[in-house]
């Protein structure tokens, strides 16, 4: 048994189990039922994948479906553990995986080595059996899933919502240990979160499992995560907009916004400072490409 063995698992009841990795506190979620089992982002170390596969086997489901929330390497390593399973992911997933396949394998090997394990399974890019985008309802009895486009961090990202369980699997968003990590203009990420906000207010999410970090329990806790990340994005956007108005270069905007406050700023474990500075650049390029901002009265209502 690994030292953190028992604590690695959280049982959410009703066949839903979450396993947190030793690496990056990455969460894999299992929906277990004799009719159908679903594994969401199974990972990330080989011993952990063995353990997840064992838990699925124990439920002896008639079918296993793998859902991948996005194509980043730490989320896509599990497929080789379930060769017969169907897979579901975003319709941009396959091309991102194909583009990044060598890097994914390199990262998998490196991470395993860092944790005293060996990555023996290789990695092959694959096409999901079901590629979805937009808003997609899915029934895998007894599980009902709503998959939603969730761009901002990765173009192939989806969030997963189990309406009957009031559960949101948030992919790489709404973490208590990471700030939003942009791959595009700030606005893209902000809109993804803003779309979830009315649902959260209405009580659609009683439990939130982020891709990394702790599970949030209760409507208020879920709302707090949303508000904190939206607050960060709004401050980032405002700061960058001011910098652009004043004619600052991207380098000058980076150094000015280095002083901004945000979650995990002084953490030595995660490269949060570097992520924040990259975010400044994405926000800057995004606003620059959008052109000079119009007065509020001229912007379309949302
Ligand atoms: Zn990611």
UniProtKB/TrEMBL annotation:
Keyword Hydrolase among UniProt keywords: yes
Top-rank taxon of the source lineage equals: Bacteria
Q: Which residues form the Metallo-beta-lactamase domain?
A: 25-212
Q: Does the keyword Hydrolase apply?
A: yes
Q: What Pfam families does this protein map onto?
A: Lactamase_B (PF00753)
One GO molecular-function entry:
hydrolase activity
Q: What is this protein called?
A: MBL fold metallo-hydrolase
Q: What are the protein's UniProt keywords?
A: Hydrolase
The protein's matches in PANTHER family, at most eight in alphabetical order, are given as:
ACYL-COENZYME A THIOESTERASE MBLAC2, METALLO-BETA-LACTAMASE DOMAIN-CONTAINING
What the entry lists under InterPro entries is as follows:
Metallo-B-lactamas, NDM-1-like, RibonucZ/Hydroxyglut_hydro
């Amino acid at each position: 048994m690994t030292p953190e063995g028992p604590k690695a698992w959280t049982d959410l009841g009703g066949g839903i189990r979450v396993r947190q990795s030793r690496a990056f506190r990455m969460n894999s979620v299992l929906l277990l039922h004799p009719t159908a089992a679903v594994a969401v982002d199974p990972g990330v170390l080989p011993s952990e994948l063995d353990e997840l596969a064992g838990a699925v086997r124990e439920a002896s489901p008639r079918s296993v479906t793998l859902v991948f929330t996005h194509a980043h390497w730490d989320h896509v390593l599990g497929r080789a553990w379930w060769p017969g399973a169907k897979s579901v992911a975003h319709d941009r997933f396959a091309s991102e995986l194909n583009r990044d396949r060598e890097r994914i394998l390199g990262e998998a090997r490196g991470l395993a080595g860092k944790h005293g394990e060996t990555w023996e399974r290789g990695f092959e890019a694959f096409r999901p059996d079901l590629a979805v985008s937009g808003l997609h309802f899915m029934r895998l009895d007894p599980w009902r899933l709503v998959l939603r486009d969730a761009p901002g961090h990765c173009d192939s990202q989806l969030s997963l919502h189990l309406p009957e369980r009031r559960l949101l699997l948030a992919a790489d968003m709404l973490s208590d240990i990471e700030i939003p990590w942009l791959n595009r203009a700030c606005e893209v990420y902000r809109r993804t979160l803003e779309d979830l906000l009315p649902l959260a207010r209405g009580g659609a999410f009683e439990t939130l499992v982020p891709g990394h970090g702790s599970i949030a329990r209760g409507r208020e806790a879920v709302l707090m995560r949303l508000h904190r990340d939206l607050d960060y994005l709004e401050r980032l956007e405002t700061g960058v907009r001011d910098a652009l108005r004043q004619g600052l270069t991207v380098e000058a905007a980076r150094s000015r916004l280095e002083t901004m406050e945000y979650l995990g700023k002084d953490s030595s474990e995660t490269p949060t400072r570097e992520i924040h500075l990259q975010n400044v650049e994405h926000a800057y390029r995004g606003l620059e490409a959008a052109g000079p901002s119009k007065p509020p009265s001229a912007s379309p209502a949302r």
